[in-house]
Amino acid sequence: MKKRLMLLLAFVLTIGTILSACSGKENATSNKEGKDGQPYEIKWYTIGTPQKDTAKVFEEVNKYLKEEINATVKMTQIDWGDWAQKSQVMINSGEPFDIIFTNGTEYVQNSQKGAFFAIDELLNKEGKELKEAIDPSLLEGIKIDGKIYGVPTNKEAARQTVYTFNKRLVDKYNFDISKVQSLEDLEPMLKVIKENEPSITPMATFKAYLPFDYVFNNEMPFAFAIDGDREHVINQFESDLAMQTYKTMHNYYKAGYLKEDAATSKDSWPMDVENWFVRMGDSQPYADALWSRAAKYEVVSVPAEEPTTFNDSVSGSIQAISATSKNPEKAMEFLNLLNTDPYLRNLVDKGIEGVHYEKNEDGTIKDLPARIERYNLPTYSLGNHFILNLYENDPKDKWEKFKEFNEAAKPAPTLGFHFNSDPVRSELASITNISKEFYPALATGSVDPEEYLPKYNKKLEEAGIDKVLKEIQKQFDEWKSKQK
Amino acid sequence: MPKKLQTQSSIALSQSTNDMKGAGVKILRKKYRDPQHLHPVVNTIISVLLGILAIMCIFPFFYVIIISFTSEESIVRNGFQLFPKDWSIDAYHYLWGMKAQFFRSYGVTIFITIVGTIISVFMITFYAYAISRPQFKYRRFFTFLAFFTMLFSGGLVPTYIVVTQFLGLKNTIWALILPLAMNAFYIIIMRTFFLKSVSESILESARIDGASEWRIFFQIIFPLSLPGIATIALFSTLGYWNDWFTALLYIDEPNLVPLQSLLMKIEANLEFMRQNMDVAIMQSSLFDTIPQESAKMAMVVIATLPIAVSYPFFQKYFISGLTIGGVKE
């Protein structure tokens, strides 16, 4: 037995030495790259379905980059559905690469873990122009413990929830949608639709919206009020607003305005099927035009709230530099160029002029079939929108409207505050489970809030919600005091 | 050779049962009952039960075929139906449009299945044979080594590090083959099989006749152990054919994606779309290329059909392979 153990130990030790020797060597050799005049190859992972013409376009990109910053880029796309798992394994394994797309909680967690490179200093040197080009509220919002860990995409920084209507039906029954401000205002219209349009579901399944600033997301009971007391975290399900909203929703549900399986349905209500009257969505300037184009019939929206800059609306798309990058400066130089140089930005996004798109005389562009079939990249994930060429059917003032939208938005109370959930992990786990059970049923009106909302809150209390609220408040106060 | 043998023996077998039946009827007309004969009522009940079970197994696949011929519009409006209002072959038309990727993935899957199974069978039998022989001094240690990995595994991230950074297999076809080639469980099965089915005296006689170790393995051990080898070959064939996870981890290149992984990708993309409607709508042109419900089902049909159709033919070999050695001492 002893002998066997010794053998095993010896074996493990040998493997250990071999492994560490291997990795050591790799670091030593690759450190040299890019510093002796050879162009450094930047490894870039981003989201989206891999495209057939990527190699072709990046040949052009590299030609340009070699001249500008003596670097080349190898871009690899990871498919939408694979993204979450694959990127996480890559990051956890410490694989050497330079730039990676990230967003939302994934960004916050990986930054807190130290997977990304803090770029504050780089932003003052290599990324100077970039820093000027990007909306300051975006950079402010993605700060984690006072440091910036990625380059946010310069686009709409705020979020505005809207009610979107099927325009054909609005016109047919002469509804005045401009007066819609709350959920209650929808009632008379829903009634008419229900009575006269049997093939239309009056409300596409949505979860009634409560206008709060959420610490996690809208199904977790931790929120700050946007108007009024912005300093204290509350459980929004205890507010009168929640009771009132869910009561209305329950009435709608009982009246048959929603599908019966609303609470459990996974139906995404694709826009191009015209079987709905009203739905909820997040808006941006000219969203109606965009949606109408996707739907192939007219839709029209009215805002349900003022545009507000939230944590999740600023962290929707970020390119981060990996902590495993061997040359973060070069990576930053590339990101700087990608976000400030219109030629490079359009090349990466739209492909090669004449092959993937055509330029009209007035500077607007038109996609050629090759762009859709062979080089269809997700614009939102790549970089600065405001230096992109406009399409011929885009409104001329599109980007100006975006800037106005961003400026008009007011910051949410927790903009830039990222809660560290380690101290209350077990409480949060049980609260998540409780919320998963109650929230969908309540928010779709499937159950009576008079009965279930108190039940929900009672269960939350038993799960230790007070402790979590206290912890959030504590961290929030600390963060707030550092701000001044 | 074994094929011929098998047909002969089956003929002999059927003849002998016929004889027996004939004899039974003649001599013991009333008292003798065929032990395989069931009371008609019991027979009906069992037949019905088995029939229901069979339908339960076949029905989902049948349903998938129906959905694949349903028009997308009808699915969105009415959900899945057994008798859809609108039939359409749009889904197959759509698949024909992505035939380049589809056939490529098919090729990858077939290649890794064949090559992978061969490699894996040899690696596993070599290892198992070695640790099954008492002459091998370190057999206990190596048995323990294999056994140890069944209890404790390195986990996802260390495996990933080994495959991508030390072996440098990322984006190569070998990343789809090698990680699945060794399987501790099959090694233990084969070791037991060798221990039980190959007696030491046969090997001794071979050694006396002057056979080398290689010759012993290929000419004596291998034929004697065919049933066991056929079993693990079948398992690893299925393992390779159905594998999508290794491709998810190690493959970025579209032309190395196997079929099952392609299916999983489409499914996962649809799921992503559902959860990120805002992205999906803003980037609608991107998601136009993702097939909808009916096309997904059509893909399942096309990916499964060849296996489903060819399996009955192969099954014959597997069963005969399993029984050949079973009777012999």
Automatic annotation (TrEMBL), chain A:
Keywords: Signal
Gene3D superfamilies in UniProt: Periplasmic binding protein-like II
Annotated ranges, domain DUF3502: 413-480
A Pfam family reported for this protein in Swiss-Prot or TrEMBL: DUF3502
Record's signal peptide: 1-21
Domain of life of the source: Bacteria
PROSITE patterns xref list: PROKAR_LIPOPROTEIN
Signal found in the keyword field: yes
Classification via SUPFAM superfamilies: Periplasmic binding protein-like II
Protein name stated in the entry: Aldouronate transport system substrate-binding protein
Organism: Neobacillus niacini
Lineage, highest ranks first: Bacteria, Bacillati, Bacillota, Bacilli, Bacillales
Automatic annotation (TrEMBL), chain B:
PROSITE patterns xref list: ABC_TM1 (PS50928)
CDD domains given in the database record: TM_PBP2 (cd06261)
Name used for this protein in its record: Aldouronate transport system permease protein
Cellular compartments per GO CC: plasma membrane
Listed Pfam families: BPD_transp_1 (PF00528)
Compartments where found: Cell membrane
Membrane topology: Multi-pass membrane protein
Domain ABC transmembrane type-1: start-end pairs: 106-311
Keywords attached to this entry: Cell membrane, Membrane, Transmembrane, Transmembrane helix, Transport
Gene Ontology biological process terms, A to Z: transmembrane transport
Transmembrane stretches, start-end: 41-66, 106-129, 141-161, 173-195, 216-241, 295-314
Similarity remark: Belongs to the binding-protein-dependent transport system permease family.
